[in-house]
Amino acid sequence: MPLVASQSPFIICISGPTAAGKTQLAMDLFDTLDASIISVDSALIYRQMDIGTAKPTAEELTRYPHQLIDILDPAQSYSAADFRRDALACIEQAIAKGKTPILVGGTMLYYRALLGGLSNLPEADAGVRAALIQQAENLGWEALHQRLAQVDPTSAQRIHPNDPQRLLRALEVFTLSNKTMTELTQSQQPGLRYPSYQFAVAPADRKVLHQRIETRFMQMLEQGFAQEVEALRARGDLHLDMPSMRCVGYRQMWQYLDGDFDYQTMVNKGVAATRQLAKRQITWLRSWPDLHWLDPTQVDLKEAAWSVLQESLPTRPQMWLKKA
Q1: Number of structural domains in the chain
Q2: Phi, psi angles (nearest 5°) of residue 6
Q3: pLDDT tens digits, residue range 47-68?
């Protein structure tokens, strides 16, 4: 029998490396829960990029609507702060309708921005950084540390004079914002105000994941990935330095179409880049607190996730039942 969210709102987060089976688990839970699926993927936000991003099919999206998919043109950019704003709005809309938000995707920076909050620190500025480095070369790092002690004694106390990277960043923040790093860090935006149940889908055997990545990349090629990238190149307003074209696989296919290397080299590079992405995702997740790891080769993902939810939620399972 279908289930609904308990009276206390909560959020389900499904993360993991690429090609591990995250989307399938989200759709399986959607079949059981009165839920709303929210994508946490920096590639799926782009329209006209369907095959190379392994975007759910049109049929799947009809049956399992995903929010934050196909929201931007590939020429546009989208930051972690943009995602946080939009995801929070989607979460509140779902909860207002009595639905359980299911967040699914592998963009760990998005998850960190949403779950941990964002500081109000300004972005790095190459010009300011270069000027500070020049001052350090002329006056010495000790002189810069003394300057930091004058404007931000708290940061100066925890940053050693022989730590140029952190020293530069603290002075850069003050130069750009006229506020200290201490002030801005204390004003960090809060994380989620709802409890979250977090799952990471990943085979314990790395060889299994590597094989899944290679198999999916070959399927993308059979589905017309080359034609998809050719159409993007033909637009004339996209280039390889854009965030959209830095998505794994797209750069390698674009370079192949430009004649930079042969077809097999493109395949090898595309698979290698995807494996490197998966490695980075797993590295992020290993430091994630309160994470339930699910191995798709060892357990039924839906049953394992559902078991965790039933054990963890503070309300009786009966409260989840829909009335007939």
Answers
A1: 2
A2: -70, 175
A3: 999 999 999 999 999 999 999 9
